[in-house]
Amino acid sequence: MNSLYQQLNNMSQPTSSAKKLLDMVRTAKDPNAMLIQLFEQNPQMKQVLDIIQKNGGDPKVAFYTLAKEKGINPEDILSILNR
After folding, report:
1. What predicted TM-score, i.e. pTM, was given to this entire model?
2. Which of 9, 40, 67, 82 would give a disulfide with 72, using CB separation of 3.0 to 4.6 Å?
3. Domain that holds residue 76
4. How many structural domains does the chain have?
């Protein structure tokens, strides 16, 4: 098993935060507006936007590309977030 996957699986707080953020976006009346607001308020979120823009504006492509670059199976990350 990938050691990073093990670390992610054992980090309940950050995973919980990611799940909460994902739920907020999913349930927002205007998810795009919420994401823009998050990007403007948080420098780390700005980095995410930059990565997405470098991958043609497609977040899915950006996620899979970055996971591949880091040697991480993206399906492992998705399974953690979908628990």
Report:
1. 0.55
2. 67
3. 3-81
4. 1
